[in-house]
Write a structure and sequence with these properties.
Blueprint (H helix, E strand, L loop, with lengths): L5 H17 L6 H8 L3 H8 L2 H24 L6 H31 L8 H4 L2 H13 L4 H25 L2 H15 L3
Organism: Pseudonocardia autotrophica
Keywords: DNA-binding, Transcription, Transcription regulation
Pfam families: TetR_N (PF00440)
Amino acid sequence: MTSAGPARDRLLQAVVEQLAGHGIADRSLRALAAATGTSHRMLIYHFGSREGLLAEVVGVVEAGQRETLAALTAEPGTGPREIVDRFWTTVSAGARRYGPLFYELSAHAMQGQEHARSLHETLVAPWIEPLGSVLERAGLPPAAARTRARLIVGAARGLLHDALVTGEFTEADAAMSDFTAIALPT
């Protein structure tokens, strides 16, 4: 990555949208450039390489979800069930567009691909602290709050995966509703 600024940000967002709609697979920088109306030289200038570009895509996708959670947890007086319900609604709506890209990048992290290496640090850990804090405010001891937060993240991602594979978002919504009723303090 060699530059920053609005042009780079717009180009990155165009790549994210392209990949969300068509996946990563083995798409070259030239193919991504053509699909986003730029040149492969501009992608190299802004991101250094295909792997650098994909690493930036990983960061954008994860940052957006964490910003949503941060906004929800910052609202005073909001209980854990309401936070998780609202977060689920927001994330599951976005997953219809960005979910396949998220899971494809997650698979790249599992395979140890360099551009997705940062997901080892960002895919789970940054979610535990804010959710854990909400659960602690609701009365759970710190260790139990962290464990429950991990359970919430895992359940939500599993249900999103299920909905994306089957197309049964209504069923996944109902399952998440049941899960929050069981797993979260009122």
